[in-house]
Design goal:
146 residues, binds zinc ion
Length: 146
């Protein structure tokens, strides 16, 4: 190989490394940006293993590292967003929505259910004591006859 070619190749490798290096810098940069701003959970499903989480560019422009364009997602939700199975509006809404747990929605019937089971328990207890009383009376009657 001619010296010139070797030099050219070195330059190419150098450029590539530089290119890769700057990408790496950006990657670390926007990951840090997103994790500084948003909680370390998937904004859509709540998955929370930080090492597995990814940072998604909502407009799919990797150069747009504006904090509003970033969102922390798990790999599944990230892919689903990129394929438009989850809309950007949904991701945005989920990202900016306060994560407040409200059990009321799930526990609607809890009061009624517990009242019913309380009634059933009391009835069972009364039956049990009534039967015990009857048995005791029968035993007393039996002993009186004996
Ligand atoms: Zn997810």
């Amino acid at each position: 190989m001619a010296f010139e070619n070797i030099v050219r190749e070195e330059v190419e490798i150098g450029r590539n490394n530089q290119f890769r290096g700057s990408c790496e810098m950006k990657r670390i940069n926007y990951r840090k940006l997103a994790f500084d701003r948003y909680p370390p959970v998937c904004a859509h499903c709540g998955f929370g293993i930080a090492d597995v989480l990814e940072v998604c560019h909502l407009d799919c422009q990797r150069s747009n590292n504006d904090i509003g364009n970033l969102v922390v997602l798990c790999p599944t939700c990230h892919k689903m967003h990129d394929l438009d199975l989850i809309s950007t509006e949904t991701i945005l809404m989920m990202r900016d929505r306060p994560k407040v747990v409200r059990w009321a929605k799930r526990m609607k019937a809890a009061g009624k259910k517990s009242a019913l089971s309380r009634r059933q328990t009391c009835a069972a207890r009364r039956r049990k004591w009534r039967l015990a009383g009857l048995k005791a009376a029968a035993t007393r009657a039996h002993n009186r006859l004996a």
